[in-house]
Amino acid sequence: MIPLLSIMTAVVALDQVTKVLLTAYIPLHTGKVIIPGFFNLIHVRNTGGAFSILAGASSSWRLSFFVALTLVLLAVLIYAYSRVKPDDRWTRTAYALICGGAVGNLVDRLRLGEVIDFLDFYVGTYHWPAFNVADSAISTGAVMLLISLLRGK
């Protein structure tokens, strides 16, 4: 369980530090061009889930739903992690990244009632929704799990 906690802690720390720095230097609903035509740092808040799912629901219901969902998913992921062979570092890292990302966004929800997003990628008119370090960890972990499943581990 030590590697799980180490990776989770690193993800949560990096996620929260980047959000603190962002809020200190970029006011809400503004941004800074980093690579013209490709990447901005922006300061937006997401009251919903991925891709703003349920953003229009009442705040008390939405917060309760996402906190409960996150806690249930964390329990399932930690159980799955415990069932992975100790020498399968790839799969264990995948679970730890997903858990760390989930906790990072959970901290925002509990502290602010919403999640801070700031990484803004686009090419021409194609624009990906803004996301954060926690979202990146979840996505990376999910891809790693998929690769692990395809490899038969």
* Strand-residue proportion: 15-25%
Q: Helix and strand string, N-terminal first?
A: HEEHHEEH
Structural class designation: alpha+beta
Poorly predicted regions: none
Strand order of the largest sheet: 1-2-3-4
Residue-averaged pLDDT: 91
Q: In the residues, how many domains can be counted?
A: 1
Can you give the helix content as a percent range?
A: 55-70%
Largest sheet: 4 strands, antiparallel
Tell me the overall shape: globular
How many beta-strand runs?
4
* Number of discrete helical segments: 4
Mind telling me the C-alpha Rg? 16 Å
Instruction: Please give the alpha-carbon distance between the first and last residues.
Output: 19 Å
Task: Throw out a few tags for this protein.
153 residues; alpha+beta; 4-stranded antiparallel sheet
Question: How would you describe the overall organization of this protein?
Answer:
The chain has 153 residues and is of the alpha+beta class. Helix content is 60%, strand content 16%. It has one domain. A four-stranded antiparallel beta sheet has the order 1-2-3-4. The radius of gyration is 16 Å and the shape is globular.
